[in-house]
Each structure stands twice: as structure tokens, then as C-alpha cells.
Amino acid sequence: MKVLHVVQGYFPAIGGTEHLIQRVSEELVSQFNDKVTVFTTNCYSSEAFSTLKMPRIAQGREEINGVHVRRFPVSSYVSRLFVYLAGNLSLPGSQYYRTLFNGPIIPGLGRAIQQSDYDIVVAASFPLLHMFTTLKAAHKSHRPCIMIGCLHPADAWGFDRPMIYRAIQQADGYVSLTTHEAKYVISRGVSPKKITVIGAGTDLPLFEGVEQGSARQKLGIPLDVPVIGFIGQVSQRKGVETLIRAMHQVWQVYPSARLLIAGAKTIYADRLAAKLAELPVSDREKILLRYNFPEEEKPLMIASLDILAYPSSYESFGISYIESWAMEKPVIGCRNGAVPEVIDAGRDGLLIQFDDANMLTEAILVLLGNPSWAHQLGQQGRQKVISFYNWPEIARHFRQVYLRVLENYSNK
Amino acid sequence: MHNRPILSTCQNGHVALDATLLALWQYAEGRSLEEISFSFNTNLATPKIVRAALACLAEAGLLERNIDLMENEGLVKPSADRQSLPTHPQASLSALIVNYNSFEWLKECIISLLAQTDVHIQIIVIDNGSYDGALDWLETNYPDIQRLQIEHSASLSHAINAGVTLASPDDYLLILNPDVRLETGAVAQMVSVALSDPLCAAVAPKLYFSWAPSFLNGIGNHVSSISWGTDNAIGHLDLGQFSSYHELPSACFAAALITPKAWQAIGPLDEGFPMYYEDAEWCYRARLLGFRILAAPKAVIFHAFGGSLGSTGHSEGITPRKLANVVYGRQRFAIKLLKKYLPRFVRNYLFEDILNFIRYFFTGSFTLARAYFRGWSNLIKTLPAILGQRRLLQDSRVVSDDDLFKVQRDIPMPLVWNGLPELTWDLIIDHYYPLIAGKRTRSMPEFSTQSHPHLLIISTGESTETTLIVKQLIQHLVGRMDITLAIPTTLRKDAPGIPDSVEPDSGYFQQIHYSPDRPKSLHLLVDNSDIAIIPGELVNSIPLLEYTESRLIILLPTDITPHEDAKEMDRMLSLGDFFISTASEHYRWEETLKSRARIDIPVEYDLETIAYYCLEGSFAPDRYPRLAYPVPPPSEPTRRLALMVYIWRNQGFRSMLHRTRRYLIEHLLHSAE
Q: Which residues partner with B92 through β-bridges?
């Protein structure tokens, strides 16, 4: 089978969708000898689509682990023109301005999709513009199109756009990461027949054999202090500020505790820097901030933690949780969106209400005060990862969907 | 039938499925749960959804669980709702059954009624002019049963009112259709609920379809401003999700218990209703006057819905007579009872009638179209009389329309298709799976291997008596539940009497420490468990317990009396789903709960029963109502223009237009007043 994946970013870009497409692509090549091509941008993060002064990856063609990757340049300055129409005025029809502002505006992408040799095209993720371009190009060249939305239903600005759901209705298949997302898409008028729920996964071997002590030594973290970590995209909606507020209370009980914040840098970085500057020096010294770390450092980061606290307002899946479970770390998440479907409260992690710094404090303190219980939660999480959330299994499910859509399309 | 798969039940009824669920039903034959969960391939078919679908098919009686296979897979057997019978209430009842060509059903009804041994029942059968031989049969076989022959067939309300004249004025009135069959103890349960509340006017049992006994015919009924009056939750598969129903909008008189006090205060049924709406009118009238209609979810009655018309459960379509009666009845109901909501009801009903009239007229169903004329002409003829009754009633009402209809806000939509209960893949995903996964149902064996219920036991370690109970409970439940024991940091892990471990491999058990000066941490632990046992003396120090989804078992304190610290006591007693007391204090606590209108809440001291509740109670929704976590409202600017700009920016242009329109309407109305 010849598969074309169209995604906003690809390795070495960091992000949940980017990683999902990379791992599914690689598994399709290694397990099934499929020919997989990826069309993507030359950006590290989606903010670069409308921001001029962000670092870029070299454009052009390359092969990564058997996957053919073609990177297109993005016209960020065009997206930038829509910033006021999209963000500030909420004019009628603002969904179009918002989508143009989000970008990525990729000259030549549609034509390239039409001219490529593939059986099926798969696009990820919304609310970005390339999803619509891909759908149009696939239909023009009479080939089936599957969409992976990775929707965050709670984000009205980003996802309350009727054009997204019209596009999903026109697509030949839709993969959602959780039942929560699937139900939301159905509530927006998409036929359930098009939707398949497949979760995300992780690479267990990557997270094996890394000791906490050696990881801390490599990262320069003291060995005998509790470490609470936030690993994921560092943006406002991920609850970093709630965590910092909670840590202020945690430090009253565990003064030596450290907070590790690591992940992709976003435009939120400036605001976070300002927030950190407001903290007392004694608190600031206990926060370790690592932006855009190399992917191979991720197991080290997770291994160095005692607890993963990821109090995000909403998640389409929450890969950070399963990566932490892979290393038997207990996790803390919020009762929002898909997270309660992923974390089994009290068995493999703890759930709190979003933006409740007091309860987050209690969760951290209870876990730190009961290390054997915390370890038990992490172990339970790892069992879940072994059973459900591993890439070979996930990729097999994806391929089944591709084959089914292809068969339905050819029967039309 | 109509291109839709229909499956038969063992009782010769039918259930409407869809193609996906039928495919699963066919696929499940002879396969293990594990195999089906992971290999059944369809849209949205995650293993959990497939398990939920299988559980629903099994509970609906459409699939049979293979006990041998289940045991091989380590699953537990299904459990039924717990039926705890009340302690022989001292009440005398008159059961009124109106017979109209329903002799064939009547026999079974009488037999099941005579089997209700917990209460004394005087049966009165009224033949409403049908002369089908029922009274002769009764005279021969049951001479003790009182009989009343109405010469010419009259309205149902007339027949019931006539029957009531034969009953003793102090008797509870049990109104029954002849096509019902009562489960043992049903009447005692209803009486027990009626006794619990001095303002109770009527009690509604759980009515099931006798031909599809897993599906609800209803638990009471209600009238709304759109469509016809409907039985509450009709067509829903009963998985135990209705066990917490307490107050209802109205009782359905297919089976209802009326208190003598309410009958005397409210008066007889309105004989102006030819058929339909008489029960709702009486109940809503009672509520207008300050009475309450209560549910008795443990009283089970089976109803051959439509059986007295000779149906086997299929919808036989609408007859012109029925249509005319409904058109007339619902307008009579609205005009007589409503005040603020009257324009809305009358307008909506009129609009519906006009649309349906046009539809029937242009599709050639002239007899049905004519029924609308008949209904409306009846209404116009009787309007002066209705307005007279309305005047009297409105003068004495004590409840507003807003309060009258508040009770029915959360009543779920009917799930019926052409008169048949329906079960579809979409319903599994959107309705039943969230119920099962949210543990708002009985425990489903299909979900039992996922994990055991998680029990949190909080111990203060102070009282030796409660410590002993905790220890015994852990011994009883370990292996059947995942247990976490939380003890204060001031207590050593190996403190005397506190279990710190269990036999290796006997099950999940963890002992953790909490800090007594951080009560919020206890709330966090409670929130992250399925069921929590909390010592009574700790309850008031734990904030936000009102909002938790977990079931709460309160270990009642031994050293304070129920009359101390009234405010704190109220909170403690209002929060528990179940209580544990010592044997000597048991009766006193039970009475204290009753005095706080917490009826039917178990107070137990027997270890086996407590263990049973811990296992089953984690799936039984007992606390009602549950509250959503308080969400702080967004701070809106107060100046009108700023507010509109705020709404435009945060909620969009349409919302702004809508809010502006609403403001203008309210402002203009206010000025006019």
C-alpha cells in the first residue's frame, strides 16, 4: 500500500501529532513494507506558521527510517496579515480568518498532492489549513482521504469552526484518539460510520533501562530531592501556572523539591518568563526550564522525575501520561476532555479539577508522602501501556482503517 | 419490519435494534468476551464500548451470558438490584381495579395482588360497562373481593371515583390497571415510601413492560409543553440507573398508591377527562397545593402496556378516538392548572395540532384529521366549566409554575421506536456506556475484569471499635475490591489494630498516610476512589464532599448522640450513601435519618451486609441530587455597551444579537408592566 501522510510538522519537530504520524509511518514501513511518504512543513512548531522570527528546518526531500519526507516552505507573512481579523475582532465569518491566521499557508502543496503516487492520503491535524488543502487535492485526484483531527473540543477559538466539521463530513474516514473526541465530532453532525477510535502509543524499549540516578546526574539534578515534572508543550492552556502556584505550597513542606518544566517552546515563553521573574529567588532556583530538548533526552527527563504533573485544561489524548507510565511514574491530570478516559483515577494516577492549585498541591504532597503507593500507581500505568498503548499495535489498527476506507472507496 | 432489525424476547415481546448491534449479537454467539471485545470491528468499537454493548444485550435478555466462559475469564456473576423489604408497615389499603374487556389480564393481576402478604389489602373491582364476565368469575372464585358494576361505560376517572366510594376513608388507595402483575413486596415498598413523607400524595412504582421485562414502561409520567404526556424513562433499559429517583412530576395510574390524606385534601379525579391525562391532572393538582409525588424504585410492577387493547406490545397506531381524547385532554390540563406557562402550552399544542391536521389531511387520513376537530370542539363546549374549575384551583395554589416543572428537568428522553423499546449502537455509545463507565448502574460482569471497585478506607486510628470494623472489612473485601487504607501521619504503620499488609497475592491493598492538618488531601483521595468509608467525626473537616462522584459510607460515631451539633450532624447525615453503626446504636440512627427525610438509606452493623454494599454500592447511585463542581462565572462587565462588546468578542456575533434582543424584550416588557 502506498500511503501519503500530510502533517504540519515532522521529526525533528516536537508535538503529539508529529510524533503520532512519525511512529505510525515508521511502523507501516517496518511491519508491512508499505511505501509511506510524508508531506510536511519546514517549521518546528505551529506557531512558526504565523510568526516570522522562528527557526526553520531545511526544506526539501529526505528519508528518515525508511519514510520519505518532503518539507515545504511556509508563507508566514501571509498568515500574519490575518492576526487582527482572526484574534481581536470576532467578525462574522471569523472562522476563515482564524484558519488563515493559523496556517500553514503552503504554496504548491495541493498540486504536489495531486501529482503524487499514492493509494490513500491521511491528513493531521485540525484546525490547520493544510487539512482542507489535502482534502480538496485528494478529491480532485479521485483518491480517498482520511483525517486525524486531534481535536480539543474545549478550545472554542480553535475548534468551534463549522468548516472543520464540513470537511470531516466530506472525508472518507476519520480517526479520533478518544471516544470523547468521537462523540464530539458526531455531535457536530458527522456520521458515526466514518469514525474509528484509535488511541496513541509509546515506544516501550526507548524508556527501558534508564536509571533515575544516572538520569539526574546527566541533567544536573541533585539525587536526593523530590522532582516534580511537566513534560509537554509549554503553553498557557497546559496549566503550567497552576503547577507553579501549587509548587509554591509544596515548597513549604518539601523545601528541597525541584520543578522540571520541559517541552516545546511557544509564544507563551515570554509570559512564563515574566511569571517566573515575579517569584522569590529561592523558588526560582528550584525550577529547571528546558525548551526544545532533543527527543533522545525525553527518557532521561522522565526517569529523573518522581511525579509527572500535567494539569492541562484539555488534551486530545495526553501522550505525556503514557510516556511517564512507561517508566512507572505516577501522573496527575485534570478531569477535562479526554484525560479521565486515559487516567484511571486512584489506580494509575490522580485527577483534579482544572486550575485548582490547592488540590494539585495536595495531590503532589500525598504522592510524595507515600512513595510506595506512588510507585504502585506508576506500575499500574505501565501495565496499561503494555496492554494497549504501544506503537506496533496502534499502527496495526491504523492500517486496518486505511485498508477499510480504501476498499469502501474502490467499491463506490 | 420497516427495514429495522427486531429481536424477540423470551416473553414474546420485541426490541428494536440497529444493524451494528445486530451484527454484534450475531458475532457474539459462542465467542469469549475477550475475543469479541478485541476483534469485533466496527465504527467506534473500542473494547470498552463493545463490552458495554454486550452488557446491555445481556441485561435486555437478548443474549445469555455463558457462566462457564465468564468464570474462565475471571469475571464475576451479574447482580440484581438489592431488594431490602421494609419492616411491615401498619397500613390498610384498598386496591381499585377498573375492568373494561380485560378479563384475561385480570386473573393474573388479582393473583399477584393477593400474594402481597406484607400489608392488608381490600380489593375492589369495577367493571366499566364491559360485562365481560369478570365480575361473575370473581363472585365464584373470590367472593371476598368487592365488585361494582357500572351500567354504561363511562370515563376512567368516573369509574375510579365510583370505586373510591366503596373504600374506607382511611385506606391508602392502590389504583391498578387490570393488565399489571405485581412483584412480591411491591405494595409494601410503596407504602413505606408514602409513610416517609407527610406531604406525599402519591407513590409511583417502577413499571416494566411485561413482554420485555428489562425495559421500563415508566417510573411515573410527566406533561410538557411539547408533544403528549409521556411515561418517564419509557423504553430505557434498566441497569439500576433509576434507583436514586425520589420526587416525580406525576404518577401513572396504571399503578399508583394514593394517600388517604391527599385524596381528601385534593378531591376526586376530574371526570371531565374522557381518557388520558386524568392521572397527570390529579398529580399536578396535588403538587400545586403543596403535596409531593414520590418514586418507589424498589417496587416492581410489570405492565402489559397496551395489553388491555389486545396488543402484544407492538404499536397498533393511533385511533381517532384516542387522538381526540389526547387533543382535548392536554388542553384541558393546561387551561385548568397553569398560570405563567399557560400561553406557551396552549400555543405549542395549537401549533402542533394545526401541523398534524394538515399532515393527516394531505396524506388522506381524514378520520384522524377529523379527530382534531372533535377534540377542539369538545374543548370549546366545555371551556366555561373548565374556567370555573380553574378559578377555584388557582385561588388555592401554593406552588408556582416554575417550581411545578422544575422537577421534570432531568427526566430522560423516551427511547422507543414504533412503541418498542430500542437499543442501538449509538445509544450504547452516547447513553449506556457513559452510565456503566460512570458507575451509575449495577455492576456489569463485562467490566469486572477491568479492575475491581476501588475502596478507600479512612481511619483515624482513635476508636478501637471502628478500627476493629475496618480491620474485619479489609479481611472480608481484599481480593474482591482494590483497597487503600489511609491512616494519619501521626499513627505508625504498624500501630496496634491497623492492618499494614495482607496475605501475599490475596489482592490489591495499600496503606497510605494522610496529614490530619491537610483535610483537603482527604477530599482528593475520596475523589479518586469509587467508594470511600469515612469516619463520621472527620466528615465535617473535609471540604467539598458534596461535589464528589464517589459513593460515601459514613462510619457513624459512637460517642455523640444524634441530637448534638445540629448543623454538623445535618451535613454528615446528608452526605452518606450508606451508614455503618454499632448494633446498639443502629435503631436510633435509622430514626434520626428518617427524621431528616432520608428514607431508605441503609444503616448497617452486620459485616456481611456492609461488605455487600461496598461491592455493589460502588455501582449504585444513591445520593440525589449530585452537584457539579462550582465553576466561577466569568466576570462580565456591567455597562450595557461594554457587555455587548464582551459578548461579541467572547461568544460571537450571533450571541450578541441574541442577548441584545432578549434585553430589549425584557426591557420593553418591564416598561409595559
A: B120
Q: Do A352 and B524 touch (CB under 8 A)?
A: yes
Q: Which three cell numbers stand for residue B398?
A: 401554593
Residues B405-446 have pLDDT tens digits of 988 887 888 898 888 899 998 888 878 887 887 667 877 888
Residue B629 pLDDT > 90: no
d(CA A123, CA A147) in angstroms, rounded, equals 5
Q: How far apart are CA A88 and CA A73, in angstroms?
A: 27
Tally of residues, chain A: 412
With 0-12 / 13-18 / 19 or more C-beta atoms within 10 angstroms meaning exposed / middle / buried, residue B151 is: exposed
> Across-strand partners of B209?
B212, B303
> Which residue among B429, B520, B650 sits closest to A183, beta carbon to beta carbon?
B429
Confirm if B580 and B553 have CB atoms less than 8 A apart.
Answer: yes
Element (H, E) at B347: helix B342-362
* Pairing, β B255-258 against β B200-209: antiparallel
A87 neighbourhood in chain B, CB within 8 Å: none
The backbone region for B656, taken as left when phi is positive above 0, alpha when psi lies in -120 to 50, beta otherwise, is alpha
Q: How far apart are the CA of A206 and the nearest CA of chain B, in angstroms?
A: 26
B chain contacts of residue A197, beta-carbon cutoff 8 Å: 44-46
Regarding beta strands A60-64 and A67-72, do their DSSP bridges make them parallel or antiparallel, or are they unpaired?
antiparallel
A112 has which bridge partners?
none
B460 min Cα distance to partner chain A (Å): 17
Q: Give me the interface pTM, i.e. the ipTM.
A: 0.76
pLDDT in tens, B308-367: 333 333 445 678 888 999 999 999 999 999 999 999 999 999 999 999 999 999 988 889
Q: Give the residue ranges of DSSP H helices in B268-341.
A: 278-288, 320-337
Nearest to A373 among B44, B510, B523 (CB): B510
Q: What is the pLDDT of residues A277-330, one digit of tens each?
A: 999 998 999 999 998 888 788 999 999 999 999 998 877 678 899 999 999 999
Residue B581: closest CA among B617, B556, B612:
B556
**CB neighbours of B467 closer than 8 A, spacing ≥ 6?**
B459, B461, B497, B498
Residues 6+ apart with CB under 8 A from B613: B82, B553, B578, B602, B604
Contact A143/B at CB under 8 A: no
Looking at the complex, does the CB of residue A183 fall below 8 Å from at least one CB of chain B? yes
In Å, how far is A353's CA from the nearest CA of chain B?
8
Q: Do residues A193 and B43 make contact, with C-beta atoms less than 8 angstroms apart?
A: yes
Q: How far apart are CA B327 and CA B316, in angstroms?
A: 19
Q: HSE on the CB side for B604, CA within 13 Å?
A: 19
Q: Is the pTM of this model over 0.80?
A: no
Task: Please tell me if residue B652 touches chain A, with a CB cutoff of 8 Å.
Answer: yes
Q: How far is CA B514 from the centre of its chain?
A: 38
Interface of B with A in 401-430 (CB under 8 A): 425-426, 429-430
Angle between helices B342-362 and B320-337 (to 10 degrees): 160
Q: B471: closest CA among B499, B429, B451?
A: B499
In the numeric block, the cell 503520532 is attached to A20
The C-alpha cell 381495579 sits at B97
Q: Which three cell numbers stand for residue B231?
A: 411515561
Task: Give B102: exposed, middle or buried? Use CB within 10 Å, 0-12, 13-18, 19+.
Answer: buried
The secondary structure of B104-164 as a DSSP string is HHHHHHHHHHHT--SSEEEEEEEEES---SHHHHHHHH-TTSEEEEESS---HHHHHHHHH
Contact A92 B482 (CB under 8 A): no
Cell of A88: 481581536
Nearest to A197 among B46, B512, B648 (CB): B46
